């Protein structure tokens, strides 16, 4: 499954409050994703699979490894965004606008990472659902 479009930046003349709002939305999505990834792992641990499926245990093991990697990537992004939000909040409280370009650059890089990670999650879900449909008991 190919991404339908590439990342496009809309940083323009955003205020620190807009950066803060958008990063907070990303943070909430990443928090919710933790439960979703745990759910996928729980599904893989259930006896819900057809018998006689070729390479079932290898594929399930690979899926668990993929979920583990996605969780690691999620945590890295979560900590990056938490750090960015902390710096932005501090600058808003101090009314220090001297670092706006630095925040724009960090926001741009984080936005691109979030876009790529979201694409990676979408590809995983697509493959996971397709595989599960083919190997689950009816």
Output the keywords:
138 residues, mainly alpha, elongated
Number of domains: 1
Which word captures the global form?
Answer: elongated
| Oligomer designation | single chain
Note the main sheet. none
Low-confidence stretches: none
How many helical elements? 3
Please state the average pLDDT score: 88
Helix content: over 70%
Terminal-residue CA separation: 26 Å
% residues in beta strands:
under 5%
H-E order:
HHH
Structural class: mainly alpha
How many strands appear in the DSSP assignment? 0
CA-based gyration radius: 19 Å
Describe the structure.
With 138 residues, the chain is mainly α. It has one domain (16-46, 60-135). Helices cover 75% and strands 0% of the residues. It is built from 3 helices and no strands. The chain has helices spanning 16-44, 56-94, 100-135. Helix 1 (16-44) runs antiparallel to helix 2 (56-94). The longest helix is centred in the middle third of the chain and has 39 residues, at 56-94. It is elongated. The mean pLDDT is 88.
């Amino acid at each position: 499954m190919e991404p339908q479009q590439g990342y496009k930046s809309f940083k323009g003349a955003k205020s620190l409050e807009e950066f803060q709002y958008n990063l907070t939305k990303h943070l909430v999505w990443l928090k919710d994703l933790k439960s979703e990834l745990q759910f996928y792992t729980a599904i893989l641990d259930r006896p819900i699979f057809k018998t006689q499926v070729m390479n079932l245990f290898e594929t399930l093991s690979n899926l668990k490894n993929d979920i583990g990697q996605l969780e690691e990537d999620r945590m890295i992004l979560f900590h990056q965004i938490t750090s960015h939000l902390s710096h932005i909040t501090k600058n808003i409280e101090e009314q220090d606008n001297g670092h706006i370009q630095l925040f724009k650059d960090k926001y741009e890089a984080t936005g691109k990472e979030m876009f790529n990670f979201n694409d990676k999650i979408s590809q995983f879900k697509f493959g996971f659902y397709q595989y599960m449909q083919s190997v689950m008991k009816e």
